[in-house]
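Data availability excerpt. The first of two example chains:
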Amino acid sequence: MLKVYTAFWPAVNGKVELESGGRFSAWYEVVPMSGVLCPVCKNAELDTVVSAPYIRGMLLAYTFGTKRFVGCNRCVKKQLAKELGVSMVVGWFSLTSLLVNPVCILWNGARLPFLRANPRKVADLLAEFGIDTSEPAARVDIPRVAASLAAAMVNADGKVGEDEILVAVEIGQKLFDGFDLELFRDVLLNSQSLPNPTQLASVLRDYLTEDGKVAVQKYLVAIAVADGSVAPQEIDILRNVSFAMGLQPPDLSPPGMSGEVLNENQ
């Protein structure tokens, strides 16, 4: 039984079909939002989301972006405070950084004491991932859930190549009904502000059946091995994501896992 949590509607016991309606359709019931645990401490309720701008100077160049922190209020405050500390140490090493970093530090620091739980932002975040809690009969968009995790994984190094996009879309179309290039590019637009893949998987695990978790895991593995090799960073991400979803890590030994993934679901 797939469980869907909502912050704005009372629990509704009933069954409705997944929006994707394809090979990985299942039934789910709506239960209260309090069942979603913080992906960091795994003790308190997930109730806080915050975006933090940052800049990293590299002498003649710099990197500017936004980090998304999710979890219980206490854990999000700790993550935001840690980001402040990092910015104070390594955020200065370019001319642009000297101008922008103080603004980022002041903005993030000023919000820290006043950061409060915000169920509305949590619902908006879940909607980005493919979990619509705006109605009593919440819907789970499995292709968007898979695309969100894939985008977080391929963007883990801060760079997304066109070849990675095409591979992710090609494999996604074979595994999930309704998966297409437009969907994946839409998810990628906000991929730099997605939580890290492990935290994202921890948030999504309570919404997926075991079949759904396995399907998403196989999709991520297929992307990782599509170029014939798996980088150590990708292995770490796949293991951490698998554990976060309550699965055993995949076997990445040479008879290509990608062939197994695709053939099982064609």
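And the second chain:
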Amino acid sequence: DGKQNGEIKLKTLFFCNLRPDKDGAFERVLAQVGLTHRQHGDQLVLVLAGEPSASVAVQFHEAGIKWCVIPEWTESNVGGAPVMNGTKVGTFSDKPTPGPSKEGIEEVEKYDAHLEPTPNLAKEGINHKKFKPNEIPSLEGHAKRGWVSTRGGPTHIENKVRPWGFVFPALKLLRQERPDVAVVHFGNELPSLALSLLAPLIGVRGVKWVWQQDQQMALPGRLTRLVSRIRLLALRFNRFVAVYEGGRAAMTARGIPDSQIEVVHNGVMDPEPEKNLAAVRQWLGEGGGSFNIDVQDRDGKSELSCESCLSILNPAAEQSLNLMSVGSMIPRKRQGVLVEVFAELVQELKSPALRLILIGDGPERAALEQQVQALGLQNQVVFLGKRNDVSRLLCGADIFIHAAAAEGCAYALSEAMAAGVPLVVTDAGAAREQVENGVNGYVVPVTDRAMFRERLKELIQNETLRQRMGEASRARWAKGFRVEDQAQAYWEIYKSRSQ
């Protein structure tokens, strides 16, 4: 199993200010990083801001990950009342343990009912639903308050990040675990620096520190270059990871030596488009059939039946052409631009077969729905809300569109590539690293709405081009955007830091 005398060769303590309560792309990355550690006889220890959902907990368990929660890191409120009562710091979960009460289990089952097993688990013949309710790992703290979720689910949550709240609990964990490498992902610079400086004072020495910058970074102004917080991290951190070349450039402009920076693109699992294409497209309305996916309304209080979706998506006599976009409905994602461009193309092309499918949720959704109503597009635009099955749904897309003003390395683009879909995207973040312009899609300037429209129109009208670019997308994903490659790259960075 790769171990020497039964002992762990490398222990990585991974601090991540995240509540992994959604079976999303990043949660699968964490599981894959854990699995890669286990395959090499090493161990990944996750330190989270909230407990994982049932399905995510099973992924972590099967990947050999040990995890615990620092409740002080994020204060979550439902109706103004604090609800984060996560696992006590120092109490780790790494195997199935007694779960929550009957009421809590019912909420978990209602929310997790449509989750599918992850590829790694599926390959091993493991389905998280085989666990009995009282065997679901690490659900302590959900029993009395039911199931709450910050990223999809039955209850709206407002999160308040408390960046300094993790420092002293993290020091305790460092002393307890004695890791070779400490990684900070989704963290805050100054508290992380304080943690790294305090560690030697409590006898924790020899730890190598890695900072992972998953989000977008703008090039700094003159003042920021001199007083950047991330620049201060270089006093203690040995390695920095960006998810796109623009992130590397932004770090070097802030004074981080280029030799200390690695770029690791965000990778995704294989959605097996050849397996899922027919079923997804049937569910999207081309055969009148059904697909085993639940659809929640924007408040998560009720479910739309497949028949309701079909009534929206199924054209009367023509085969639909599905344009899909995935992303949080926040201003910088600019879904409103997509709706405007779509409206113009519907009017110009006179095609009732065109469909715009928006996946995601957020504060801009109500305005987007009003925009669709005002344009009279309610029969051609559908909102699917937050989903746990985005990678599978993308298998039913004809074209993926994304008009963000700023990005890091968007998982949604990688997922579209994995599904074998051509893309039309704005030049934000890693877009030009994910999409080779004219090969697997088009990359247009953020402000050039007319070019975006024309590139999209070109793909709508040319089925042969769509097919060729879709095949190129799938090939590009296979060469550099697989989740297995991302996890291996992270492990190699950690390993090199420990030597």
